[in-house]
Amino acid sequence: MQNISEIEELIKLISKLPGLGPKSARRIILKLINNRQELMKPMINSLTNVFKNILRCQNCGTLKSETSICNNCENSKTKSNIICVVENIADQWSIENSTVYQGYFHILGGTINDSNDRKNTKLLIDTLIHRVKKDKIEEVILATSATVEGQTTAFYIQDSLKKIDVKISKLAQGLPVGGEIENLDDGTLISAFKNRKGLNENKV
Question: What is the DSSP secondary structure assignment for residue 181, as one 8-state letter?
C-alpha cells in the first residue's frame, strides 16, 4: 500500500473506533475518497457541527445541543418521577429504543473501577443525589451492567442514597452476569425492567 502520511494517520484514527481495525479503516477511507462529494464532504460538515454544537449535559450526563434545553432534564407530563441510572449514553439509547421505560435518565459517564476510585469526580454521582432531592424523585432504577465495576458502582450509589426517602431498585431477571446494557436485546431489557427488585424495601 502507498505510504501516504495523511491516509496512514486517518487509518490510525478510524481504527480506534469500536469494532473497527486497520483493514476496515482502509475500506472506509477508500470509500470516502472515491465519493468525495457524496460522502466525504457531508461527513466533514456533520462532524464539524457535532464537534462545535453537541456537548454533555452537566446535570444528567446525556448529549444535548449547546443552544437547546436538555430533553432529558426538561419537565414533561409524559415522564414520571423515576430516574434510570446508566453507565453511558449507549445504554440510554438501547433502553430508549426498547420503549420499556419512558422516565428520566441519569448517565454516570462510566463506573467505579475499584474501592480507591470512589471519589472520581468524572462520574455524575453527586449530581444524581442533587436531582433526587430537588426533583422529589420517587424511584431510582440502577441499570448498571452486571460486571464487577457496574455492581460496585450500583452498591456505592445505593449507599449514597440511603439517607434519602426514595425507593431504589435494580434490573433483575434476564440480565446475564457480566452483561453490558448496550449489548442486550429488547426482550431481555423488557424482562429486566419489569422484574426489577427493590433494594430498600422499607422505603417501597
Answer: G
For 198, list phi and psi in degrees, rounded to 5.
-75, 140
Q: Where are the beta strands (DSSP E) in the chain?
A: 54-56, 63-65, 82-86, 104-107, 139-142, 167-170, 197-198
| Cell digits of residue 140 | 431510582
CB-based burial label for 164 (10 Å; 0-12, 13-18, 19+): middle
On whether the 5-56 domain is CATH 1.25.40, my answer is: no
CATH for 82-203, among 3.40.1360.10, 3.30.460.80, 3.40.50.150, 3.40.50.2300? Answer: 3.40.1360.10
Query: What are the pLDDT digits (tens) for 42-54?
Result: 999 999 999 999 9
Q: What is the pLDDT of residues 140-151, one digit of tens each?
A: 999 998 888 888
Higher-pLDDT residue of 178 and 204 is: 178
Q: Can you tell me the mean pLDDT for 107-123?
A: 72
Q: Using an 8 Å Cβ cutoff, are 118 and 112 in contact?
A: yes
For CATH 3.40.1360.10, the residue range(s) in the chain are 82-203
Please state the pTM of the whole predicted model: 0.77
